[in-house]
Design a protein that fits this description.
Elements (H helix, E strand, L loop, with lengths): L1 E6 L7 H11 L3 E6 L9 H8 L17 H4 L1 H8 L2 E7 L1 H8 L6 H8 L4 E5 L3 H5 L1 H12 L3 E2 L3 E4 L5 E5 L3 H12 L9 E6 L4 E2 L5 E2 L6 H12 L3 E6 L11 E4 L3 H12 L4 E4 L6 E3 L18 E3 L3 H7 L5 E8 L3 H11 L4 E6 L11 E2 L1 E5 L4 E3 L3 E2 H21 L6
Helix pairs in contact: 1-2, 4-6, 5-8, 10-14
The structure holds flavin mononucleotide.
Length: about 400
């Protein structure tokens, strides 16, 4: 989901930098627009560094003509792509322009052009805040469906005391969550997700791996972030971008994945192991590239570490979720894995089914829980599967809190 964050010209503009970080930690994509006067208080570079994106500061490109129509009408593209337009802090001037349809810069034009919900968080001197024109503009905006996050009372930068201080980041985020329908039922949890394949070298140029794309694990990591969890993503090589705000550990071999999991295990309250680790590795990887021969070639393999077993054996009251990719007797095999590995939840899928398995954007899984539930899910997007899985995680965590029991 994309939040377009407008920042206008007041002392509290620096607080928008922290807000960007916190929005990203909810898994949101943030595009920043600065008014001309906002740039007197904070530099675009700060936001460019935080978001990794160009910060929009001008309505018209200076110098040469725009490269194409899309870049010429960027304000429409930005307005269309927004799931939320948030202005924090919003000056009295900006509220006046919004309320009266003045569109003389990028931010005010985006306001008129967007169909996304709009939230404004005003910040100003108490006398400005109490001015009848400002209050009338706010009433008008509320009437147009704009949500106003009321400023806090307190000592203001101008030396006055009273209402006018930008609402706290927590209050603004709570409103963003509510408007976007984001749940925070994983707040307080640290979710460790493993994803992707691992690689085991045969020689310096060849290796054993598997067809895991990492998509399921990345979807779980992103969904958990959006639901308020702190997320640690340990991933083998994939072509995917880690979700913003997640702690990211990039690994290649099963041993590296094992070390990264060990490093973070103590912090984790939930472990979701979606990674497809290579089960066997060459017993003695060659130091030099193996030469092509005409005869048979035998490769001796040895088992790699069983990460799942190590995780469930480790101390700590954490919930452990595994995935079982099967090609036959899916539910029976997955239930056996649930028991033998002492898992709390297994997501079982038949990788031979169309719409499940490798190289697809969807998955078809059955969730099996330690407390005997069997929940077959229809074909769903990876992200929806992730959320259904997390629904069960939330339920099992709540049950465990209500009746703490030793794993056994
Ligand atoms: C030091 C300083 C602090 C300011 N603080 C605020 C403020 O907190 N709230 C506000 O509405 N205007 C404030 N202003 C006035 C705005 O910067 C001014 O109205 C400007 O035109 C706003 O432009 P913009 O809404 O396009 O960003 C301040 C001006 C200065 C010089």
């Amino acid at each position: 989901m994309k939040v377009v964050l407008g920042v206008s010209g007041c002392i509290g503009a620096y607080k928008a930098a922290e807000l960007v970080r916190r929005l990203q930690q909810l898994g949101l994509d943030v595009q920043v627009i600065l008014t001309r006067h906002a740039q007197e208080f904070i530099r675009p570079l700060t936001f460019a560094a935080l978001t990794g994106k160009k910060v929009i500061t001008e309505m018209f490109e200076s110098g040469s003509a725009p490269a194409n129509l899309e870049s010429a009408v960027e304000h429409i593209a930005v307005a269309d792509s927004a799931d939320l337009l948030l202005v924090a802090p919003a000056t009295a001037n900006l509220l006046g322009k919004f309320a009266n349809g003045i569109a003389d810069d990028f931010l005010t034009t985006t306001y008129l052009a967007t169909k996304a919900p709009v939230v404004v968080a005003p910040a100003m001197n108490v006398n400005m805040w109490e001015h009848p024109v400002v209050q009338a503009n706010l009433e008008r905006l509320r009437g147009q469906g704009v949500q106003v996050v009321e400023p806090d009372e307190g000592y203001l930068a101008c030396g006055w005391t009273g209402p006018g201080r930008l609402a706290s980041t927590e209050t603004i985020l709570a409103r963003v969550r509510a408007v976007l329908g984001l749940r925070d039922d994983l707040a307080g949890e640290t979710v460790l997700v493993t994803a992707g394949p691992t690689c085991e070298d045969i020689d310096p140029v060849r290796y054993l791996t598997n067809r895991s794309s990492g998509r399921m694990g990345y979807a779980v990591a992103e969904a958990a972030r959006r639901r308020g969890a702190r997320v640690i993503l340990v991933s083998g090589p994939t072509a995917l971008e880690p979700p913003p705000g997640a702690v990211f550990e990039s690994v290649r071999t099963t041993e590296e994945m094992r070390q990264a999991v060990r490093k973070h295990l103590a912090e984790a309250t939930v472990v979701i192991k979606t990674a497809a680790v290579v089960d066997f590795r060459p017993s003695a990887p060659a130091r030099e590239k193996l030469k092509r021969t005409s005869g048979r070639f035998e490769l001796e393999l040895e088992p790699t570490a069983d990460l799942l077993e190590e995780i469930t054996r480790a101390d700590g009251q954490r919930l452990v979720v595994g995935f079982a990719a099967e090609t036959e007797n899916v539910v029976e095999n997955a239930r056996a894995k649930l028991r033998s590995k002492k898992l709390d939840l297994v997501a079982a899928n038949d990788v031979t089914q169309e719409g499940a398995g490798f190289d697809v954007e969807t998955n078809i899984v059955t969730l099996l829980t330690r407390d005997g539930q069997e929940i077959p899910l229809p074909r769903l997007s990876m992200f929806e599967v992730a959320n259904r899985l997390l629904d069960e995680v939330v339920r099992l965590r709540a049950a465990a809190r209500a009746a703490p029991a030793a794993r056994g």
